[in-house]
Structure formats: structure tokens, C-alpha cells
Amino acid sequence: QVQLVESGGGLVQAGGSLRLSCAASGSIFSINGMGWYRQAPGKERELVAVISSGDITNYVDSVKGRFTISRDSAKNTVYLQMNSLKPEDTAVYYCNLDYVTNGYKRHMNYWGKGTLVTVSS
Is 38 helix (H, G, I), strand (E, B) or coil? Predict the structure, then answer.
């Protein structure tokens, strides 16, 4: 079993900042990568930012220069620092874990429950 605990969402005015956190625990042998995705009302879920175990990062174009993804490998935690937030960033943000299980060493993917970010204009 794996657990992802997300935190940091909320309501912020345009131009403001928020920091999302996602801590992974459970039957994890190793982590290949972690990331954040978002889903706005009426839209499909999209990648926001991901970070690999080698600290390679990738961002969707719309957040480049405003969002920064980072990780603390000792805590199995990924962060998303969001600056200069815009109303179009409003969405439910989901943490994603790409990992290998203990025991059978299976490659698995796991989603958090999501945290709501609302940016008012």
C-alpha cells in the first residue's frame, strides 16, 4: 500500500503564490519520479511539472518561469512552488508517483486525491 498526502492548496488572488507539497509513504522500494498534474472544470487532466530521481524537470509551457518543482528524496516529498498565479491556473492539482514496489519490485503509478487551487481575479 502507498499513501500520498497532498497539502497547500487554497484560495489566492491573481499574482499571489502557493506552495503544494506531496509526501509519499508505504511499500516503496524506489521512486522513478514524482509530479503534479491539474484538471480544470470541463477540461482534461494535464501535466504541470514532473521531476525524476535524477532531478530532471519538465514543465508545461504555460507555467514555465512561474512554477518550480523540487523534491526532498529523504522525505519522499515533492513540492510545487507556484508564483505569479493566474485565474487560469485554477484547478484541482493531483500528485503523481512513479515508483517500484517493495517485494516483487513492480513498476507502479499512483495518484493522490487532489488539492484545489483557486485563483481569483
Answer: strand
What's the farthest any 2 CA atoms get from each other in the chain?
49
Whose CA is closest to 45, among 57, 30, 60?
A: 60
Query: How crowded is the C-beta side of 50, counted as CA atoms within 13 Å?
Result: 13
d(CA 120, CA 35): 24
> Looking at residue 42, what DSSP letter applies?
T
> Taking Cα atoms as reference points, which of 91, 99, 93 lies closest to residue 34?
99
**Residue that is written with C-alpha cell 481575479 in the block:** 121
Q: How far apart (Å, rounded) are the C-alpha atoms in residues 65 and 29?
A: 33
* pLDDT (tens place) for every residue of the chain, 121 residues total: 899 999 999 999 999 999 999 999 999 999 999 999 999 999 999 999 999 999 999 999 999 999 999 999 999 999 999 999 999 999 999 999 999 999 999 999 999 999 999 999 9
State the Cα–Cα distance between residues 92 and 103, nearest whole angstrom: 33
